[in-house]
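The following block was generated as part of the benchmark described in Methods. Ligand: nicotinamide-adenine-dinucleotide.
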Amino acid sequence: MSLQGKTAVITGSNSGIGLGVAEALAGAGADVVLNSFTDRDEDHALAADLAARHGVSARYIAADMSKGSDCRSLIEKAGACDILVNNAGIQHVAPIDSFPTEKWDAIIAINLSSSFHTTAAALPLMRAAGWGRIVNIASAHGLTASPFKSAYIAAKHGVVGLSKTTALETAEEPITCNAICPGYVLTPLVEAQIPGQMAAHDMDRDTVVREVMLQRQPSRQFATVEQIGGTAVFLCSEAADQITGTTISVDGGWTAL
Ligand code: NAD
């Protein structure tokens, strides 16, 4: 399948799942726009590397997804946005009665409101181009809950709801909107948590991964960024033309429990 001639904007894509999705879309021939708020030389180098390896155009555009005006100007600066992947996200863990208000506000802004702003800015470009795909990276926590993650879970459930509304507002157009709901994915951030978990539980790597970290993931295996990227590419394929307003879980059976 070729996405040649399509431009994909992936928010929060200088690491982890966002970078994996950018890699998969570039591998399928799409021109890509990488984003984060950091604007370092290595962020621009990631785009140059993708362009060189896949023979596509790739740019890095700095924008802070906690600010609505930055979200909208990211899409404006991209100039085209046939595929929008809303991926930027942060986490904070604390009980509700001591959850810092500024963390709540930041999580709702970055994990939920950014998708509203980018979608609002991208839809006119998709309509003008006569085709569009919106892929929102939600979570198993967009469908289920855990204690101490109130803001994250509220935001991810919100992303699932926003995806359904976007799908209904575009249902008669060649535009789809869906949410991918990953379980635990092995990203550098998750990899970095393993030594601490090993020490806290006095377990070896395999045991702590299987018994502690993947306790809710029946496959007892992490999902990979390549699998999330492949799912995003599938949602951009003709086979997915009638898939809209739904969620695709990539969670090793988490939500079947
Ligand atoms: P990550 O920390 O590697 O990636 C987060 C990305 O968001 C980074 O590129 C970071 O630069 C960017 N970002 C953070 N704040 C930003 C801001 N203000 N403006 C612009 N960019 C910003 O983590 P990840 O695991 O790859 O997570 C990516 C997405 O996948 C998140 O939405 C997360 O909730 C979701 N997710 C992750 C997992 C998992 O197990 N890793 C599971 C389910 C869902």
